[in-house]
Write a structure and sequence with these properties.
The chain contains two helices and seven strands, in the order ααβββββββ. Strands 1, 2, 3, 4, 5, 6 and 7 form a seven-stranded antiparallel sheet that branches. 9% of the residues are buried. The chain is 44% helix and 34% strand. It is α+β, with helices and mostly antiparallel strands.
Length: 163
């Protein structure tokens, strides 16, 4: 009778050991999968961020080329209007229609008039005199990150220094 009881207890402990061992292995496997999933998502976010930075730089270069080809290309744009860059196959153009690059990125350009302080000739945000030879260019690239939208923005002043 005592021998049977010990055998049943050993059998019960073995089953318990198998259950605990399986749980530990499963939890470890799920932990590794979670880490791998997060690393993959972070890696993809870094790819999007790098692409967005290149798109910002490219957009500013396009605006600089337009400026270099003649200030009238930029000087006559209505201030504060959002424009979207389009590659026509042979040259850059703009549109007021929203366009997405690679069905992922939205790139906008906005030109704003610049005012200068009458006494110091410094750029000012309020008052002053309009400077027709300077524009504030703001370029932004936005993309969807699942449930949120990420936007990167860069601004610079362009000056009509060729005339």
């Amino acid at each position: 009778f005592d021998r049977r009881r010990r055998f049943k207890m050993k059998k019960g402990f073995t089953l318990l050991e198998i259950l605990i061992g399986t749980s530990i292995i499963t939890a470890s496997f799920l932990g590794v999968l979670t880490v791998f999933d997060r690393l993959t998502k972070t890696s993809q976010e870094m790819v999007y961020l790098t692409q967005a930075n290149f798109l910002l730089e490219e957009g500013l270069e396009v605006v600089r080329i337009w400026r270099d080809n003649g200030w009238a290309n930029l000087g006559n744009w209505p201030a504060g209007t959002n424009y979207y860059l389009i590659w026509t196959g042979s040259q850059w153009a703009t549109s007021t229609q929203n366009t997405f690059l690679d069905n992922k990125f939205e790139r906008k350009i906005k030109l704003v008039s610049v005012s200068r302080d009458n006494s110091s000739d410094d750029i000012t945000s309020s008052g002053g005199t309009d400077d027709p030879g300077t524009k504030l260019v703001t370029m932004s690239v936005a993309w969807s990150n699942g449930v949120a939208t990420t936007t990167k923005t860069i601004s610079t002043y362009l000056t009509n220094f060729f005339n």
